[in-house]
Amino acid sequence: MENVRELPETPDWAEERAAATYQMLDFIKRIGRQGLYIRFIHQLKDLFVREKNWVSAGLALKLHADLYDWTTGGDVEAFADGDLALPVQTPFERKEAIYRHCLDYFGKSISFSDTLFR
Q: In order along the chain (118 residues), what is the average pLDDT of each group of 10 residues?
């Protein structure tokens, strides 16, 4: 596995950084460190946002939404990171709110590609 910190921060190495981060995310999820997992998901999302890779940003953020069930019982603590600020919510509300942000990124992808092909 590549060490993410040793990979250059240039666009030429973006795919390698993303692949190494996904491998690290898989390991962190398997060992049950949810807080750390979420933090790295958002770092990956930020990487894609900087590159204006909106589809990948939305898919990375979906990994966070996948942690929650479609249940209305119990509360999930507040969360804030960049453009995503979520209050205390039920798991259902949290999943729905994160999915809305995913859709925002997917929408940016459509409008971004429209400007490229005009």
A: 59 73 88 93 90 93 96 94 92 97 93 61
Helices (H), the chain: 14-30, 34-50, 54-65, 91-116
Long-range CB contacts (< 8 A, 24+ apart) of 64-71? Answer: 64/38, 64/98, 65/94, 65/95, 65/98, 65/99, 65/102, 67/34, 67/37, 67/38, 68/92, 68/94, 68/95, 68/98, 69/95, 70/95
Q: Are 67 and 35 in contact (CB under 8 A)?
A: no
Nearest residue to 76 via CA among 62, 60, 84, 87: 87
| CATH architecture of structural domain 4-116 | Alpha Horseshoe (1.25)
CA–CA separation, 24 and 37 (whole Å): 9
